[in-house]
């Protein structure tokens, strides 16, 4: 009466659930960082920039209105962030370029750090301190310490906080006061068109 029944239970379970609100953006940022680590950053940036909205729509002053309530502000904010993400990225890159142009010492420090990194990666370099030869890991540590010191002396910390602060301020003000009802429905929009969840 008892028979051996073999049932194959191997495989993968897909337990994805639709996330809403802030959790949705956190999971998308985690997915974005995973792709950046895999070397897809340039293609991702170009993919996002290809979805840039017209600047006439982005700066149309007749569409700026004070939100009627806090829930409306929240919906408007998320919808504008999703719709104008490429424009906000261009604003960030523009502010960053402005900082580099107005701070030539920082530009020199970044270029020197870049060429130092290229020299370190170019081949089997041997560094000697006295009679002690540095390993590749120690060379990277010396390079990182020197590069960070050079950037700190050039004022990279102040520039970084200025760029991030200015970007957050501009994006928050625009996303809060731009009337989202003038924006087409976001059903057909993809936040990160180059990313595919597997």
Automatic annotation (TrEMBL):
Chief localisation class: cytoplasm
Compartment(s): Cytoplasmic vesicle, Secretory vesicle, Synaptic vesicle; Membrane
Keyword tRNA-binding: no
Recorded family membership: Belongs to the PRA1 family.
Source organism (scientific name): Parnassius mnemosyne (clouded apollo)
Keywords: Membrane, Transmembrane, Transmembrane helix
GO CC terms, sorted: Golgi apparatus; membrane; synaptic vesicle
Pfam families (UniProt xref): PRA1
Record keyword Transmembrane present: yes
Membrane spanning stretches: 86-117, 140-164
Membrane topology, from the record: Multi-pass membrane protein
InterPro entries: Prenylated_rab_accept_PRA1
Name recorded for this polypeptide: PRA1 family protein
